[in-house]
Amino acid sequence: MTSLRIGLGQLAPALGRVDDNLADHRAMIGEARAAGVELLVFPELGLTGYLLQDLNAEVALSADDARLRELAQRARGMSVVVGFVERSPDEQLLIAAALLEDGAVRHVYRKSYLPNYGLFDEQRFFGAGNQLRAVDSSLGVRLGICICEDFWHLPVPYLLALDGAQILVNISSSPGRDIAAAVEGGLGSAESWRTIMRAYAQLTTSFVVFVNRVGVEESLTFWGGSQVIDPAGDVVFEAPLLEPGLFVTQIDLDDLRRERTALPLLRDERPEFVLRQLERLVREQAGVPQDAE
Amino acid sequence: MAVGAGVAAEEASYELPPELLIDAALARRIIAEFVRGHLRQTGFERVIVNLSGGLDSALVAFLVAEAIGPEALLCLLLPYRTSSPDSRADAESVVALLGCHSRLIDITPIVDGYLEASLDGEEIDRGRRGNFAARARMAVAYDQSVPWRGLVAGTGNKTEALLGYTTIYGDNAAAFNPIGDLYKSQVRQLAAAIGVPRRILDKAPSADLWPGQTDEGELDLTYAEMDRLLYWLVDRRRTRRQLEGMGFAAATIERVERLMATSEFKRQTPPVAKLTTRTPGVDYLYPRRRPAPGR
Description:
The complex is a heterodimer.
Chain A lengths: L2 E8 L7 H17 L4 E3 L14 H4 L6 H9 L4 E9 L5 E9 L2 E7 L11 H4 L9 E2 L5 E6 L7 H8 L4 E6 L15 H17 L2 E6 L1 E4 L2 E4 L3 E3 L5 E4 L6 E8 L1 H9 L8 H15 L8
Chain B lengths: L23 H19 L3 E5 L4 H14 L4 E5 L7 H14 L2 E4 L3 H11 L7 H23 L1 E3 L5 H6 L20 H11 L3 H5 L12 H5 L3 H13 L4 H6 L4 H13 L33
Parallel strand pairs in B: 1-2, 1-4, 2-3
């Protein structure tokens, strides 16, 4: 059995207080180390809080910021995913996730799909990332890191899986809403997430690690309920709703081999076929007349 | 759930539309998190609630006490001379049940000091008198929040907010509102679950701005009907035609839509004339509380 111990850092970040949040991250890294965690995942914007509005510029870090490096040093021996506001070299503000390994920032992913509907206003305050790639982690597994709303767009899990991801890692700041007695668990937003994550795990025959924050900002209460799902779509672990804490669980990486042998969906994917259809659709939807070819 | 999934709450004098039923235990947890989170964010530890004797403020008092403990809650009882004595007795029963702090202040001298003494016999209709009383209660609550060192909790529900059945800067003024996203029917469900006295649950909802006033009398619809209509219209985005197909009368739909449209201003902060490069509320946008230098 090739086991991997995963820590779900279900934090309640303090809005706009980077120093306080860094301290919470440091403390949880220590706690995770003591619990033998190998992969520790923190939520989206864990270092800054979510509803930043014009605070976005004040809390932003560059990917080579000394504070991120210090966190990476402290996390040495573990792989840690941390969420922050990145100020890019060309001065864009982006919602980002950093993979910290071997005392350094190994990989930075920038959220590609920014929601701007309902209670969301992310496109006003942030730029969208343009790169999606899986990354080999020093744990010996390939990670597909993405952020919250990215998971509400089919290409994200699809592309990450095609890129060889074995564990899809989604870090989130998902606010609870649509409370109803008729919904399993009572919260519509949580139930929708559970449904799509199980489907992604099954369709990509990958593990899904989902870490959602808790805590309150303005009107919003973030629901937590972080999860680990195995490649068959079964929930390995679910953290409680609304409660902060480090939650530790273990997966067996052999599940990947077994599931992908039994169900070779990824083998049968046809990216070239998809690409042809995409090219056609983009062309047609761009309004290019067919006889212009 | 304390109140079952049936349409009619057991032995209750009101109806709970099934589509509006919520998971009451989860709602209580989220609201408790919201109350504590909002206090943490703003740096306060205590809360003040204007307790009218009605259901909404009783529920808010119960929810706040559940979130932060009754010792951190001050309930104000602010009767006017025309307020129903039953209202006061019901408010006192809430205070006794919760074991929270309370203070009784008769607002008659404030209200009549202006309306009777200062206006020199001018004819004051009951609506105007009621609105002034609501604003006097707001002024007292905000003043009392200073020695109490607490935040004023709002007690308005979603039904009355959407219909504009509030006094602007009166009962709708608050630092935060734990029940503003719950329809009256959901307030009833939650209140039953959390243990608000049956007497308060069963009485006809009233703003108690004048004797004999009832919400349903003024709005000419039951809360169950109104809540269902608002739910399908607002939350589930049904068209007027679909609503008619569901059995809502065209005239009722039109009246409710008119009430909503003409009360938008009550749900927003006032517009500021845009003149400079960054204007508060327009393009100078920050969370209500944010880290300040030296804190």
